[in-house]
Amino acid sequence: MRVESPSSIAEITRPRRSALKLCVILTSSQITRRSESDTCNRGNPKSESAFRENALADYLAPAWAQCWSLNPGSDTLLRAYSRVMLDKATRRNLEFAGEGVTVTTTVDRLLAASEGWHTEGSDAHVILGAVSYLPDAEIGQRIANACNSPRGPGFFCSVQGRAESLLWKRDYFAHEHEVRLLLIGRDWKHVTPRPDVRTVKFDANEYFTRISFDPRLEPFEVKERTAALRDAGYSGEILPDESYQKVLYQIVMTKDWADP
Asked: What is the strand order of the sheet 63-69 is part of?
């Protein structure tokens, strides 16, 4: 910020008392451009400690998750998970690889899909749960309580413990209104490699109620995406996303306006 007048400087250097917190987002170069003398050096920790550190990760049962949201529409979520940058000349999206598609389903349909996975002999438990958004201290306390319980960190080896821990999230993300579909391994062996991604059979026509493309796309690209989706075998509903549609209001006036 550049202050141009002495009066502005006076206002900034002698503010009224306020507990209101302010935040600014700087570039990486701005925040790292500092002299070595500004760096806070606490020194080396003691070579010997009265406490022994254990890695909780060694006790976590393997788990995979698919994230959904109860939020009916959010500009923040759309821009976080879908990239659209239109070419000035062609109006095509230059970020096709990062472009998102909004798909909608119901809890009943997801649970019906999970029953099919169990019928085919799935080696994991399926859990569907809403995320609880908590203060940082509360999450830390819950982890501490579990680790100091009679079962100890083994709590996180269980399906219940692992599922509960995956449904705790900082309240900073509360705008997501997230619901997680979890796949938690039944027979966990620490030495067994864990795949990064698990695949299950999923029929989009059976489990999706509708699909919408990014509303920032031009109409001709939406038509192309729709045709490609139909060619891939999807026969369900495809609805336009009108989140950014301009609205024209017609207001009936009961009296004349005064001159501006």
From this structure: 63-69, 178-185, 124-130
